[in-house]
Amino acid sequence: MAVSSNERPQAIAAVQPVAIAADAPVFRTLEDLAAHAQKSGAPLLKVHLENNVHLVKLEPGRLEFRPGRHAPPTLAADLAQRLKDWTGARWVVTVAREGGAPTIAEQKQAAKQARHERVLQEPLVRAIMDRFPGAEIVAVRDVAAEDTAAAMPDSDSDDE
Questions:
Q1: pLDDT band at 3 (very low <50, low <70, confident <90, very high)
Q2: Which of 8, 18, 61, 110 has its CA 20 to 30 A from that of 27?
């Protein structure tokens, strides 16, 4: 490799594939990771994953995130250890200074706000809001989902 006097050679890191056990959980999203933390008896880690992790990259054996301002300083090390415990493989967990997606909590809040705004734009709702100044929407529920849940037979009632 020829290097001119103005250029410095850069080290090229070989990325070794990570050997993860076949029966190990697969984490494709931060939500997968948070759900597994809850299921595995790590509710505090789940809370941190939902509220203090801005995901930059998640792939087998590697997790990169930007911590939120309330993240504990040990979060990266805690995640690396838990991931190793859960998958049987060493994970590289890195902390980024910038970037990353909104946290799970921020995404949920944004979805809730967008849903509220969509309801406000419905003609019937808009007419009611115009007719009653000062009225406000306090909750938005999915009636179709509630109807489906109510229509499901209760398995306990069949035993009587």
A1: very low
A2: 110
